[in-house]
Amino acid sequence: MAKILCDKSLINNNIIIFVPQDVTSDIPKKRLGRLLLFHCDENKLQETQRQDMAAILDMKWNPNSSDRPPELALVNADGKLQLFQLDNKVINELCSSLIGDDRLGLSLDWSNAKYQNSEPHIVTSDSKGMITTFKVTFDRSLTQVNQWKAHGFEAWIAAFNYWQPSIIYTGGDDCRLKGWDVRTSCEMPTFVSKSHSMGVCSIHSNIHKENIIATGSYDETILLWDTRKMRSPLLEINVGGGVWRLKWHPTNGEVLLAACMHNGFHILNCSLSDGCPQPIIASYEKHESLAYGVDWYRVAEISLQNQDSSVHHIEADSTSKETPKNEHVDEKSISEIDLKENMADKACWEGSNEMIASCSFYDNALHVWKVNLRPVYSN
Fold this sequence. Notes:
Elements: E1 9-12, E2 15-18, E3 32-41, E4 44-54, E5 56-61, E6 71-76, E7 80-87, E8 90-98, E9 105-110, E10 121-126, E11 130-136, E12 142-149, E13 157-161, E14 164-171, E15 177-181, E16 191-193, E17 200-205, E18 212-217, E19 221-226, E20 235-238, E21 245-248, E22 255-259, E23 265-269, E24 280-284, E25 291-296, E26 314-317, E27 335-338, E28 353-360, E29 365-372
Parallel strand pairs: 27-29
Antiparallel strand pairs: 1-2, 2-3, 3-4, 5-6, 6-7, 7-8, 9-10, 10-11, 11-12, 13-14, 14-15, 15-16, 17-18, 18-19, 19-20, 21-22, 22-23, 23-24, 25-28, 26-29, 28-29
């Protein structure tokens, strides 16, 4: 069995969530983890909360909860789906549900990234190859809707088609990418693709471009798909490392962020109309261990126009158990990197300076960095 990720970062407004990979336990076979909450204020991080818990394999903010306080869902090594709420810089658990016994929850996704829904669904995948869907009720309980066997080995990833939330895509260690229609019994997939030559570990639907999804694999390739024609991908991009996570940009449907394990983090131009002669437009390679967790900053007001282009960054080390709650991380500048020079003549994308959080596996490191995306193709 491949080593499993317990290392993620997510950004929502000014909040960063970080999960250290290796918190040791004296209990045999008990995987322990830790959830750390940071407040990000321009060029500094402040840790506001930490919770020891079962190891966390994946987590995502509710992408469309404007009528509620921010909500965070996670899956853990105890085989549970947990739902939390952020209130005044503190995360409190709302509810949880068992996915199944003797398994690890490996991934999750929310159904409501494109369309507002006060009772969204969450899909999870697990180490037994099972896919489970839950309904998040209005009073914030979790009701299991369906569960089925999707893959012969670990189901590394499950993701909704955000334009048609009744459609779910899954990827597994069996090297298969599959589609499912939850309006049926899910006894048979709607398609099975063998285009990836190794385990499929990342899938993300594009909320700005209907019918477009991206998939990533241990085979070091990212594939772009038209969901109406799943026999072959539209585009294949080799990124030189296993693709553990993919995140489309929150507002630009042609920009894709990738965590590429042994080859760092990359931002890609996925403009199909131009053929992507050089899809990798920016890279971040300051981590000294496997690149796993990554996410975009969700607030567009950040501006670097008056800053120089020297490279700095925040690093947060979460391995110490003695760090006091609410202790400030040493203040440092956040990295700023520019796009590759040969993209500089491309059209300017307004409001382009972006902040990204990334984290790595063995060294438990969290970095926050900025990239100048002005030369990216405009939509």
